[in-house]
Design brief:
Elements lengths: L23 H13 L3 E6 L18 E4 L4 H15 L5 E7 H6 L2 H10 L4 E6 L34 H7 L4 E6 L3 H12 L5 E6 L3 H4 L6 H10 L5 E5 L2 E6 L7 H5 L10 H19 L10
Helix pairs in contact: 1-6, 2-4
């Protein structure tokens, strides 16, 4: 895979959904299906993407199962058990759920499914808030970010969920971003070959929730990576590896300044975020992932 354009897979999504303009989560699902192919079952937990496949809209050419916000991973366990009983093989089972359904409300079923060792790929389309219900704070919301429930800025640190999932002993966990499609798709294909659960935390810059024009969605995602605010890495069988390293980190202010959710920050607060990112990157480049404190 050299580029998205070089892929010959049939597109498994079509137009016709009521999602917001520039929705990154829909792009993330389209890329996932392009990477994994038609033999894929998609499980959706209630959230933004529930609107994607809602009567009379059906923009997917693969099976789609909508479940409550808290039990997507439990559904994956059930589907995998049914596939074993019927003798059906070479079928990808993916959960596609938002950060509210993953970091928070659905964490218990995700943790249990991983404990059981069921083979599925869990993709968290992470827009860093409960965007579908009014942009409330989630466990994925960055420190100091505005949401409707943290109008003065989130006072809490973002939950280090990839570390938490890796600590479960999962064979494969990773971060990704829709603005870096080839990195994301390579990770999906790697995950599909693993005999066990995999977890990918996919950054999805949300124009509606973050406060920027939809035409800049890809740009904002790129800046998240290029400034170090969202490092791209994987942990395979306990081994940490950065999958993209900028030649030099751009100032994080370039990323923050494009978003309404950070407009209230003072120069001092921006400098503090920059300091934390610099410290994290110093450790990540040395391979000291577990010691790095995530922004």
């Amino acid at each position: 895979m050299k580029s998205v354009a070089s892929l010959k897979n049939e597109s498994l999504t079509v137009g016709g959904s009521p999602l917001c303009a520039g929705c990154p989560a829909s792009l993330g699902l389209k890329l996932a299906l392009q990477a994994l192919g038609k033999n894929t079952i998609v499980i959706n937990a209630s959230g933004c993407m529930t609107l994607y496949v809602t009567y009379p809209y059906m923009p997917l050419k693969t099976p789609w199962i909508h479940l409550a916000i808290e039990n997507a991973a439990a559904g994956a366990s059930g589907i995998r058990a049914a596939l074993r009983e019927t003798g059906k093989k070479n079928i990808n089972v993916i959960c596609y759920a938002g950060d509210g359904a993953t970091y928070d409300i659905g964490f218990q079923s995700l943790s249990s499914a991983v404990e059981r060792g069921d083979k599925f790929i869990y993709i968290c389309y992470n827009n860093q808030s409960f965007s579908n219900t009014g942009v409330q704070k989630s466990g994925a919301t960055p420190e100091k970010a505005y949401t409707t429930t943290t109008p003065k800025g989130n006072p809490f640190k973002r939950k280090p969920l990839v570390k938490i999932m890796a600590a479960h002993g999962m064979p494969y966990t990773a971060t990704a971003c829709v603005s870096f499609p080839m990195d994301y798709m390579k990770k999906l294909r790697k995950a599909s070959k693993i005999n066990g659960p995999s977890f990918i935390d996919l950054l999805c810059p949300c124009p509606t929730g973050w406060g920027f024009h939809s035409s800049r969605m890809v740009e904002v995602g790129k800046l998240a990576v290029l400034t170090g605010a969202w490092p791209l890495y994987e942990i395979e069988n306990g081994k940490f590896k950065l999958t993209y390293t900028p030649a030099k980190l751009l100032p994080v202010e370039r990323y923050l300044s494009l978003q309404y959710r950070f407009k209230h920050l003072s120069k001092k607060e921006i400098n503090e975020i920059q300091r934390k990112i610099n410290e994290e990157w110093f450790l990540l480049e040395k391979g000291k992932y577990w010691e790095a404190e995530e922004y």
